[in-house]
Write a structure and sequence with these properties.
Layout lengths: L3 E10 L2 E7 L2 H4 L6 H24 L14 H18 L3 E3 L2 H8 L4 H13 L11 H9 L1 H6 L3 H13 L6 H26 L1
Parallel strand pairs: 1-3
Antiparallel strand pairs: 1-2
Length: 199
């Protein structure tokens, strides 16, 4: 079945902020069944997800907002799970044409944060995300994942990071980034030397 493109918009009507789901009239003809009911169901799913994300971030008192960077790492993982569930529920029917823009706006996240959260929930199991390790460290590790996986070091580094978090021995974030780069370069050098000796 062809996916139906929709756009999630926000605009002001006087002093009131309005959020709406837009769909081209031609595309409604592609929807099997009653298009109005299906669009309303999609709209409810999306804005229910936004509300749940708000409660994850700020609790039920949404006026007491905290800057998202200072939240526990487990909150980010749970948000990633929430987004993953929403995406699975709509993936066969709808395509949000301004997905990244809408998610970033409605969830109060930068595009980079949204991308990293979505990736980390797939890479790390829930039990591997510790609140004693700030989320920025998991982001740093995720960004070097490809190199570490190629060298067979990713799982080992994941455990090392969490061990430092448990023991309250984390280096500064920038220093940790340098440690990962040094680890990658050191292992690459070892492999190059072995290759040279083999020849």
């Amino acid at each position: 079945m062809k996916k139906i493109p929709v756009k999630i918009i926000e605009f002001l009507d006087g002093d009131k902020k309005i959020q709406e789901v837009m769909i081209d009239l031609v595309d409604t003809m592609e929807i099997e069944g009653d298009p109005v009911i299906k669009i309303e169901k999609f709209k409810k799913k999306y804005f229910d997800t936004v509300k749940k994300a708000g409660e994850l971030f700020y609790g039920t008192k949404l006026d007491e907002k905290k800057k998202y960077q200072y939240l526990p790492s487990s909150v980010y993982w749970n948000l990633g799970l929430l987004l993953q569930k929403f995406n699975k529920e709509i993936k066969n029917e709808f395509e949000i044409t301004n997905y990244t823009e809408a998610i970033s706006r409605d969830f109060g996240l930068s595009k980079d944060y949204h991308y990293d959260i979505s990736a980390i929930v797939q890479i790390f199991k829930k039990k591997e995300i510790l609140d004693s390790v700030p989320f920025s460290y998991y982001r740093a590790l995720k960004r070097k994942r490809s190199d570490l996986v190629k060298l067979g070091l990713f799982e080992k580094e994941k455990k090392r990071l969490n061990k430092m978090g448990k023991e309250n021995k984390l280096p500064g974030r920038e220093k940790y980034k340098i440690q990962i780069i040094d680890l990658i370069n050191s292992e690459k050098l070892k492999k190059e030397k072995k290759t040279t000796r083999g020849n």
